[in-house]
Amino acid sequence: MTLSISEVKTRADLRFIILGALLTSTTGAIAQIALVLRLTYATGSGVTVAVLWLASTLPAVFLSPLIGRHLDRRETVSVLRGLALLQASFDLGLALLPGVAPVLLISVGLGLAAGTTASGLYALLGALPRWQQSRPTSNPLTLVQASEWTGATLGPLVGAGLVSVAGTRIPLGADSAGLLGAYFLLGRVATRRLPNAVGAEMGHPLWAGVRLLTHDADLRRLLGPVALVIAAVNLGVVAEVFLATRALHAGSLGYGAMVGSWGGGLVLGTLLTPRLMRWNRLTVAGAGSIAAATGLAAAGASPGLALAIAAYLVGGVGNGLEANSARLLIQERARPAIQGRAFATYFAFGRTAAAVGTVTAGLTLSPLGSRESMTLAAILAATGGVALLVIGRSPTGAPSRGDPVPS
Fold it and tell me: Same structural domain for residues 173 and 250?
């Protein structure tokens, strides 16, 4: 088969983007482990680690409308390259400056840059030709998300080993190098996403992403159930540490095996999603949520590590189906001109739900125990999954895609 010049360039661009996403997600996870361990060693307090998570997450939530508008008003590749350099400099600052306060302060800037990068990268994928996005085996968003899950799974394992051998500065330096690599890879990308005006029908340009997610019938009904699933998974993320190390007596290696199993399932579920394109996105997300709930419940009830690992593989596949289906639906419904704002709004929503799940885990883990907390997480995920299945069977009007919505 002979490919046109356009097809060759598009495939090359996608390879550069995927490689950059894999590189930065891996080194970013390595750096995150290093920061968590540095604060743990320095303070011995879980509260400080929680503050680190909030410092790197909440600013991107509160500023998501501004982040999205900035992405939609600038050429996206240039923005992403600038953010890569900025994050690399933040990493160097973290590696060189001692103490807890500098880590927390720099983490605010690093979290803002990382949150902007995530939204910008997904918006850039929407600028690739539609023929590329319609292919089940090579959907750009799916391939990039799978590479990110792969890096997020491998990174903590590598990071823990690096910290034990070389301390925390080397992992932070590795992340800085990875970001510089992404800067050069993005420089090879020929696709350009140029700013586009949004008509008055979307209201104030700052809130175009919010308006899309609240006025499109399917996206509006997606948000509540997906919030339950995200909160449930993050509740499980906290409880699984105690499940593996205390209830199952599997130690840190057992915990790492469970995390790796869920991460492998995430990659498989993400890659499987486009092959189910004949099904309603909400239905696929619902089925995936129920599979995630099954994995959480089975792991919580497991008598031994082997069954928990197998359960987590099933749960990870379901989580991948749910997450990728939701993001594909947003990409399909948002016009290219507002995809930066649409994804910034959705990621802010997801981070808020994750924070609720984490706080819930902190409040319930001690009185309930790890197994019962996993059961609670499973119930929440299953509730969200059933709601998505019901919604998926209900007819809706035409997609909004950011078109005029009557008052």
Answer: no
Q: 247 and 297 in contact (C-beta within 8 Å)?
A: no
For position 404, what pLDDT does the model report?
Answer: 35
Are 113 and 236 within one domain?
no
In angstroms, the Cα distances linking 142 to 134, 268, 385 are 11, 11, 21
322 vs 328: CA distance, rounded Å: 10
How far apart, in Å, are the Cα atoms of 246 and each of 135, 264, 305, 370? Answer: 45, 24, 11, 9
Both tokens of 232, joined, read 């449930």
Q: List the domain range (segments joined by +) for residue 365.
A: 204-402
CB atoms within 10 A of CB 345: 29
Encoded amino acid at 216, one letter? D
Do 226 and 185 fall within a single domain?
A: no
- Whole-angstrom distance, CA of residue 148 vs CA of residue 137: 17
- Packing angle, helices 76-96 and 5-43, rounded to 10: 20
Amino acid at 160: A
Please state, in angstroms and rounded to a whole number, the distance separating the CA atoms of residues 347 and 328: 13
pTM for the model stands at: 0.87
Residue 398 and residue 262 share a domain:
yes
Q: Looking at residue 351, which CATH number applies to its domain?
A: 1.20.1250.20
pLDDT < 50 stretches in the chain: 1-3, 131, 199-201, 397-407
* Structural domains of the chain, count: 2
Start-to-end C-alpha separation, the chain:
51
